[in-house]
Amino acid sequence: MKKVKKKIVNKGEYIMRAIPYLTPKQSTVMQMRYVEGRSYQQIADTLEIYEDTARKIMWRAKKVIHNAIEEGIEPEEIKNNLKRPLTSAEKELRRIHKVRLRVQKEI
């Protein structure tokens, strides 16, 4: 059966409903930024991370929400659609693959 895309009426409301369903880091950063109105520097100081890291977490959270909106996914379904983190073995395999591709391009 083909999935019908739903039209999201209010993006702001959607984002507020989606926050609890993001990863814990993404949820925390979005909550601090949009609900509490903190700057990225304040978020970074509170979480003891770099400001760029806070921005990157926010960017990833926005990307997840944007993709969910584009696909017509309800906020409650976001967690089911998040990709699981790679294991260290999978990260190593990905790194090796990238190195091999680089070497092949050089030849």
Q: Please report the total strand number as a whole number.
A: 0
* Highest-level CATH class: Mainly Alpha
Strand content: under 5%
Tell me what the CATH architecture is: Orthogonal Bundle
Walkthrough of the structure:
- The protein has 6 helices and no strands.
- The chain is mainly α and 107 residues long.
- The chain has one domain: Winged helix-like DNA-binding domain superfamily/Winged helix DNA-binding domain (Arc Repressor Mutant, subunit A), CATH 1.10.10.10.
- Helix 2 crosses helix 4 and helix 3 packs across helix 4.
- The radius of gyration is 18 Å and the shape is extended.
What's the gist of this structure?
This protein has 107 residues and is mainly alpha-helical. The protein contains six helices and no strands. It has a single domain, classed as Winged helix-like DNA-binding domain superfamily/Winged helix DNA-binding domain (Arc Repressor Mutant, subunit A).
